[in-house]
Design goal:
CATH superfamily of one domain in chain C: NADH-ubiquinone/plastoquinone oxidoreductase chain 6, subunit NuoJ
Largest sheet of chain D: 3 strands, antiparallel
Chains: A alpha/beta (about 180), B mainly alpha (about 180), C mainly alpha (about 190), D alpha+beta (about 375), E mainly alpha (about 110), F mainly alpha (about 325), G alpha+beta (about 160)
Number of strands of chain C: 0
Radius of gyration of chain C: 23 Å
Structural class of chain C: mainly alpha
Helix content of chain D: 40-55%
Order of helices and strands of chain C: HHHHHHH
CATH superfamily of chain D: Cytochrome-c3 Hydrogenase, chain B
Number of helices of chain C: 7
Number of strands of chain D: 10
CATH topology of chain D: Cytochrome-c3 Hydrogenase, chain B
CATH architecture of one domain in chain C: Up-down Bundle
Oligomer: heteroheptamer
Distance between the termini of chain D: 22 Å
Radius of gyration of chain D: 21 Å
Distance between the termini of chain C: 66 Å
Number of domains of chain D: 1
Largest interface: C-E, 91 and 80 residues
Strand content of chain D: 5-15%
Helix content of chain C: over 70%
Largest sheet of chain C: none
CATH architecture of chain D: Orthogonal Bundle
Order of helices and strands of chain D: EEEEEHHHHHEEHHHHHHEEEHHHH
Chain lengths: ~180, ~180, ~190, ~375, ~110, ~325, ~160
């Protein structure tokens, strides 16, 4: 199965002990909560801070299988592994974690064959100087996604050949999806 | 629509109800004839922006058939068009382009705002919106508004009939129920 | 049947007169003058216009006039060939070349600019005046009009007396086509 | 990869296709560096209909975003709304009655056919044939009538609700749909004879606009574009959702990688959608269309959820990052045409402009869906 | 002689041909681009054609010969145009100009 | 002035009127015909059957503002539409509508039509270049290269027919086909068994020469906006339109004269001129029918068709006919 | 050589088939609904702009709870109400009760997206969709509907 193989391959990026973190308790609790109707447990909302590593997720609950968090420096290595395994790039986006003062860029990869496996790669950069290496050399299709993420979040993709606004006007200097954006 | 409604407009732009640029011939009868000629051959600009453009195309097609009124000659070049149908949301990035297209159309020309987005930004006018223009009438002299999201093809046809009436004062068809 | 005959007879009868053949000499003269003017105006545009495309347009105009003049010289066939070849082929080829080779008309004065204009005018003027003088002074033995120019005769002559020249011209044309292809065809290797 | 266009001085010129151009189906602009009729380099400029759906998704509550999804892609609105409701249902754990899922599937497939019909017409119009558009739209009107009778609007339905549907279908709809299906089959045969067999049409598409499987992978192309490149990829089969596993249908795949392959994939898909609709009507169970407890306030638990669905244009993904409130923290829409269009810049290099525009037509663009 | 009878006079044609010839010479001297010179030379050719046709009409016993000559000139002119223009384009490719003064390499 | 000048003037005026009326009402016929093919009525509410639609369009076009785009070559821009219309009208002068109805019967009539048709290419080039629009230039280059390459098979086919009839006079060409439907050039004869193929070639070529779909590359709407008349509005556009339809009438007339026996009546029910008109309008209907059925070809597909299929076949037909004429 | 001619032949055949199809269509009846001379009937569920529904005594059913206002994604509904005291007979004695009465119900139709969430959210069945489908006007202010007024006009 490709899923195990990928977990194996991606874990090698994390030489630290115990790369495969157990699914956090809070997730399981949420799944239960989802199962038994609509009872909310707001006290369980506090998620322990994510550490870098590979996480196996339940596809039925989340829609993806492998969740990788890593430093921007390791991104290219991880993407190369994924590229070699024959994944296609689904999308790139960002999330503004304003409380943690971090910007997260999220990469989705999926497969064309029937061996279902969706990999999510996340990497976080500080909010005041967000910068991530570009993967458009490996996946040319990432070019537009990165430009879009740059538009919306201001994340700089180092090495991108043409990082000008794509969806926003060409002279735009604002990033609308930042949580502190005011038009 | 009588000319009295001239004063009620609230837009900053020059009122769309300005008299049509008159041609060389100034005689009333000739003017009337010219206006009749004009209203019976509105050639729209092929210019679709969003959802409403699909209904515009549906209007041009067999079931509703704009061609009955001589208005099916969709011209891709603004030089040959008489009627600009702004069908869809106007974004700030697109606005200069639309303005250029409008300027390229030869007089006399008319503008139709089709759909809620073109009238006032529609459902996309929300807090935090930075991208769209709140209505085509902020930068174009709109002659007729057709609401809906999107409007039905009949509404577009009704708009053309109303515009014909407005330009020439001639009624193509009187609704027997309203009369 | 009868009705249709009647309708047919209603058609304008004047259309049936066999056209220009009977047109009075005066009308022919007027048309000739117009065509003369067309030719000269076309020529002036062709050699004087700053923009090359206009020059080609002028050349086409000139050729149309020349075609009409050939018509007056009793050779409608050559007149039509003039239109077909010069206007339809040569002018369009030149226009193509302008579009391919000179995307923008350059109106810059060259280094030899100030003198070449007057110089050209003098040379051309001398040549013209000399030739006109020669033409007017010389008395040519004018013979009466023989026929209205027969296409058949041209064909017969081309394939009998002048067949060698005909063949040579076709070879010249063939070589011209091949040569121009060889010269101009390079570049787009995609 | 789309780099900047550096204008070469010799023999090339820049051609601006769009933002208003008949071939772009909306407001898309392609800056083309041309050498005569050949494209040396192309750069797509987007954003002329960028309306910021994602920010709206974060500013509004989950149900309030529902109408937006129909405006995203106005031709296949049902499919996109389906993705949205499935994502929220996955996140908030809402059960959906079986009848509702069946009706959803039927509606999505009907909408897929209407979308493909429109694409077919517009595509042939791009190639200069006008009449097929008229026939296709006339057939589409029948489908729109069916859907209007149920949903109340022609184009932007807003019919799905979290947990179910807005209102139920009745027997009239079922009978009418059963009547329309054979008519559509007949029409498809007519299009085949009128368009697919036509020598001019084939000459314009065969071996034109190659998009290889590897290129699809690198650019993330999905949907008919990928299937035309020999990739057997359809979210309905690869990552089954809703009640699609219950249906028996095939995924048309062509290996030619050219514009004609993409065209044929869509034409075959209509046939398959008709099969799904027939089966759905047969299997349609009785029961409610909303869960017993109608979800009142939707607050998905904290987390990150992704849902992919197969829309008429390809794999549409929706990512919801929830912070447990009634608004989404992050609302990401992964639109299929965005990826499909991104390969256009590379694919059209060295092509003639008319072939490139034919290829653009075969990508089935809906611009508001690219710009979002 | 009446103005309306000009077309029956040989001199008219000869004068016209001379004028066109002069224009052609003028163009050849003053034009600075290859295409312009080509246009001018077409004028010269047409002038000679008119001459031949005029003599054919007014003085020749056999009115076909001049026409055949004119046809030959047309053929030659067409060939000349084709060759000249292909040279122009080739020159343009190499020098990025059709200005004769820029084509210095041909000066030996 | 003598009556003959009046005759000439009237002939030219009649030709212009005929061309203009035809152009206007062919647009109407085209729109109605397209409507029927697409199962909609077309313009039908303006006047009975929508017959007032062309005058309305004409009035509108004539009263629209005249716009000359900035940067355009004014003179060329103004001259081009006239140049598109004038040769078309001139060609009408030599077309015989019946034995008696002809403005001016020339003994090189066929050549004259082709000579004036070649002026059309010039007008397209000037229009495209003069309007200083990239789409216009591209379209005009396309249209002209198409015109030139389709003139070749067309002329070769004409030569075949001229060879058989031994004349270039249009009237005599028709007269050579008189005497019944089996004498028409359309029907294969002993000396020219490939005539139906020739007819097809000529038909295709005249579609291409008149820039009609599926060969309407010059105004390919989905690629080049509106082609060479992108920048033309008001009456300039109207003139191009009229020129196009006048050319269609000429093309149809030429096909009728060369292949369908001109005014020759297969049944003899009514006078020749009506047969002639019937034939050309049937042909025009088939032009319209074809336009609304097929997609557009590509520029290279078009040139391939001409150089690889039409020219070889028409040349072969020419040689075959020449040989067989010697034999029989 | 054989391929050359067979391609020409097959190509011509495909063209002829296409011509045959359009020729057949030529004689089929037109499908056009000639609006305005003839109109389509809107389906029962057709969603036009919203209208208030009156109760038995001609007053709007609306109790001014504001649910529709809150449910509306684009905020095109604005309503106002005032409290009215009214007397009601409860168990034989008159009591004064307070009740909200709708004083204004404005619909800004130009921003409406016709999603139908207002109608769905209304717990009292007080609003419904109208069947107006052919609206057009020279002023956009015409689409700011005062629904109370419209109700009155309808009743009058």
């Amino acid at each position: 199965m490709i899923k195990e193989k990928m977990i194996q391959a991606l874990s090698e990026l994390f030489p630290d002990p115990e790369p495969i973190v157990e699914e956090p308790v809070v997730e399981a609790a949420e799944d239960e909560a989802a199962d038994d109707g609509k009872k909310k447990k707001p006290k369980k909302k506090v998620e322990p801070p994510r550490v870098n590593g590979v996480l196996e997720r339940d596809h039925a609950a989340h829609g993806y299988d492998i969740d990788v968090q890593l430093d921007p420096g390791e991104l290219l290595a991880a993407v190369m592994i994924i590229d070699k395994a024959g994944f296609f790039i689904e999308s790139i986006t960002g999330v503004d974690w304003i409380k943690e003062k971090q910007l997260e860029s999220v990469y989705d990869f999926s497969r064309y064959d029937h061996d279902l496996c969706r990999i999510v790669v996340r990497t976080r950069t500080p909010r005041d100087n967000p910068s991530v290496p570009t993967i458009s050399k490996i996946y040319p299709g990432a070019s537009w996604h990165e430009r879009e993420t740059h538009d919306f979040f201001g994340i700089k993709f180092e090495g991108h050949p043409h990082l000008i606004p794509l969806l926003l006007p060409e002279d735009a200097d604002f990033h609308p999806l930042l949580k502190d954006f005011k038009p | 629509m009588d000319q009295g409604s001239l004063q009620v407009g609230t837009q900053n732009v020059p009122s769309p109800l300005e008299p049509i640029p008159s041609s060389v011939v100034q005689f009333a009868a000739a003017d009337k004839l010219i206006n009749l000629g004009r209203v019976n051959s509105f050639w729209p600009l092929t210019f679709g922006i969003a959802c409403c453009a699909i209904e515009m195309m549906a209007t041009g097609c067999a079931r509703f058939d704009m061609s009955r009124f001589g208005a099916e000659v969709f011209r891709p070049s603004p030089r040959q068009a008489d009627l600009m149908i702004v069908a869809g949301t106007v974004t700030k990035k697109m606005m200069p382009g639309i303005k250029v297209l409008y300027d390229q159309m030869p007089e006399p020309k008319w503008v139709m705002a089709l759909g809620n987005c073109a009238i006032s930004g529609g459902p996309f006018a929300f807090e935090g919106q930075y991208s769209i223009v709140l209505g085509a009438d902020t930068f174009l002299p709109v002659d007729i508004y057709i609401p809906g999201c999107p409007p039905r093809p009949e509404a577009l046809l009704q708009g053309i009939l109303d515009l014909e009436n407005k330009v020439s004062g001639w009624n193509r068809w009187k609704d027997p129920e309203k009369a | 049947m009868n009705i249709m005959d009647q309708v047919n007879s209603l058609l304008p009868g004047f259309l049936t007169a066999d056209g220009f053949a009977g047109v009075a000499d005066e009308a022919a003269g007027i048309v000739f003058l117009i065509m003369l003017a067309t030719t000269i105006i076309g020529g002036i545009i062709a050699c004087n216009s700053k923009r090359l495309v206009r020059a080609v347009a002028g050349l086409a105009l000139c050729f149309v006039g020349v075609a009409a003049i050939y018509y007056y010289l009793n050779s409608p066939f050559v007149a039509m060939m003039q239109m077909l070849i010069y206007v339809g082929a040569v002018c369009i080829t030149i226009a193509f070349a302008i579009m391919l080779a000179a995307p923008e008309d350059k109106v810059k004065p060259g280094p030899s600019g100030p003198l070449s204009g007057p110089l050209g005018l003098i040379t051309a003027g001398l040549a013209t005046i000399g030739m006109i003088g020669l033409a007017v002074k010389t008395v040519f033995p004018v013979m009466p009009k023989i026929n209205m120019g027969s296409v058949q005769l041209i064909g017969v002559k081309l394939l009998t007396n002048y067949s060698m020249v005909f063949e040579l011209v076709s070879i010249v044309l063939l070589i011209a086509i091949l040569g121009s292809l060889v010269i101009a065809r390079h570049g787009r290797s995609k | 990869m789309s780099g900047p266009i550096h204008i070469r001085k010799d023999e090339t010129f820049t051609l601006n296709v769009g933002p208003q151009h008949p071939a772009t189906h909306g407001v898309l602009r392609v800056k083309m560096e041309m050498d005569g009729e050949y494209i040396v380099k192309a750069e797509t400029v987007l954003g002329y209909i960028h309306r910021m759906h994602e920010l709206m998704g974060e500013n509004r509550t989950y149900p309030q975003v529902l109408p937006n999804l129909s405006r995203l892609d106005y031709l296949g609105a049902m499919g996109y709304t389906h993705g949205h409701v499935l994502a929220i249902e996955r996140a908030a754990g809402i059960e959906v009655p079986e009848r509702a899922e069946y009706i959803r599937a039927i509606m999505v497939e009907l909408n897929r056919i209407s979308s493909h019909l429109f694409w077919f017409g517009a595509f042939v119009m791009d190639l200069g044939g006008f009449t097929p558009l008229m026939y296709a739209i006339q057939d589409r009107e029948h489908i729109l009538d069916l859907m209007e009778a149920v949903t109340g609007s022609r184009l932007t339905y807003c019919y799905f609700r979290f947990g179910g549907l807005y209102n139920d279908v009745d027997d009239d709809f079922i009978n009418a749909t059963r009547a329309v299906i054979p008519m559509l089959r007949k029409s498809l045969k007519k299009y085949d004879a009128l368009v697919t067999g036509n020598i001019i049409f084939r000459k314009r598409l065969e071996d034109i606009g190659p998009i290889s499987a590897e290129m699809c992978r690198k650019y993330g192309a999905t949907g008919p574009v990928a299937r035309g490149a020999g990739l057997d990829f359809d979210v309905r089969k690869n990552e089954p959702y809703s009640v699609y596993p219950e249906f028996d249908f095939d995924i048309p795949v062509y290996h030619e990688c050219d514009s004609l392959a993409r065209y044929k994939v869509r034409m075959d898909e209509m046939e398959q959608s008709l099969r799904i609709i027939e089966q759905g009507l047969d299997k349609l169970p009785d029961g409610p269309i909303m869960p017993k407890k109608k979800p009142k306030l939707i607050k998905p638990p904290v987390g990150d959820y992704y849902q992919a669905v197969e829309t008429a244009r390809g794999s549409f993904g929706i990512r919801i990052v929830s912070d447990g409130t009634k608004n989404a923290y992050r609302f990401k829409l992964r639109s299929p045409t965005y990826s499909n269009m991104s390969l256009f810049d590379e694919a059209c290099e060295g092509m003639m402009i008319m072939d490139a525009l034919a290829m653009m037509g075969s990508l089935d663009l809906v611009i508001p869906e690219i710009d979002r | 002689m009446s103005l309306l009878n000009l077309h029956n006079d040989l001199n008219t044609y000869l004068v016209l041909a001379a004028i066109l010839f002069g224009m052609g010479i003028y163009g050849l001297v003053t034009r600075k681009t290859l295409v312009g010179m080509l246009i001018a030379s077409e004028l010269v050719l047409v002038a000679s054609s008119i001459n031949i046709m005029a003599f054919n009409r007014f003085t020749a016993p056999d009115p076909a010969i001049g026409q055949i000559f004119a046809l030959f000139i047309m053929a030659i002119a067409a060939a000349e145009a084709a060759i000249g223009l292909s040279i122009t384009i080739a020159v343009y490719r190499n020098y990025k100009s059709v200005d004769i003064e820029d084509i210095v390499d041909l000066q030996g | 002035m003598s009556l003959t000048i009046l005759n000439a003037v009237v002939a030219v005026v009649a030709a212009i009127a005929f061309a203009a009326a035809n152009a206007a009402y062919l647009v109407w016929a085209e729109r109605r015909g397209a409507g029927r093919i697409q199962r909609r009525p077309g313009p039908n509410v303006n006047g009975p059957l929508g017959l007032l639609q062309p005058p309305c369009d004409g009035i509108k076009l004539m009263t629209k503002q005249l716009m000359i785009p900035g940067g355009a070559d004014k003179a060329l821009f103004m001259v081009a539409p006239v140049l598109a219309m004038a040769p078309a009208i001139m060609s009408f002068v030599t077309i015989p509508f019946s034995e008696t109805i002809v403005a001016h019967s020339m003994n090189v009539g066929v050549l004259m039509i082709f000579a004036f048709a070649s002026l059309g290419g010039m007008s397209i080039l000037l229009a495209g270049w003069g309007s200083r629009n990239k789409y216009g230039v591209m379209a005009s280059v396309r249209a002209v290269s198409q015109n030139i390459s389709y003139e070749v098979p067309m002329l070769i086919t004409v030569i075949t027919i001229v060879m058989m009839a031994g004349t270039m006079n249009l009237k005599e060409l028709v007269a050579a086909q008189a005497g019944g439907i089996w004498n028409w050039n359309l029907i294969p004869s002993l000396s020219s068994p490939l005539m139906p193929v020739s007819f097809l070639i000529f038909f295709i070529c005249s579609l291409a020469e008149t820039n009609r779909a599926p060969f309407d590359l010059g105004e390919a709407e989905s690629e080049l906006v509106a082609g060479f008349h992108t920048e033309y509005g008001s009456m300039g556009f109207g003139l191009f339109f009229m020129g196009e339809y006048a050319n269609i009438v000429i093309g149809a007339s030429l096909i009728t004269i060369l292949f369908l026996g001109g005014w020759d009546c297969p049944l003899g029910l009514f006078p020749g001129v009506w047969w002639f008109l019937l034939k050309i309008y049937m042909l025009i209907f088939s032009f319209i029918w074809i336009r609304w059925t097929f997609p557009r070809t590509t520029i290279y597909g078009l040139l391939n068709l001409s150089w690889k299929i039409l020219i070889p076949i028409s040349l072969f037909n020419l040689l075959l006919t020449a040989g067989l004429l010697k034999v029989f | 050589m054989g391929a050359y001619f067979s391609e020409i032949f097959l190509g011509l055949k495909s063209l002829a088939i296409g011509l045959g199809i359009t020729f057949k269509e030529f004689f089929k009846p037109v499908v056009t609904v000639p609006y305005p001379y003839k109109t389509l009937k809107m389906s029962d569920r057709y969603r036009g702009h919203i209208e208030l529904i009156e109760n038995e005594d001609g007053k709007p059913k609306c109790v001014a709870c504001g649910m529709c206002q809150r449910a509306c994604p684009s905020g095109c509904i604005s309503l106002a109400s005032k409290s009215v005291e009214y007397e009601v007979e409860v168990k034989g004695e008159m009591k004064t009760k307070k009740k909200k009465v709708l004083t204004k119900y404005d619909l800004n139709f130009t921003t409406c997206s016709l999603c139908g969430q207002c109608v769905e959210s209304c717990g009292f069945g007080a609003i419904t969709f109208s069947k107006d489908y052919n609206l057009a006007s020279f002023r956009k202010e015409d689409f700011h509907f005062d629904l109370l007024n419209r109700l009155k006009e309808r009743n009058a």
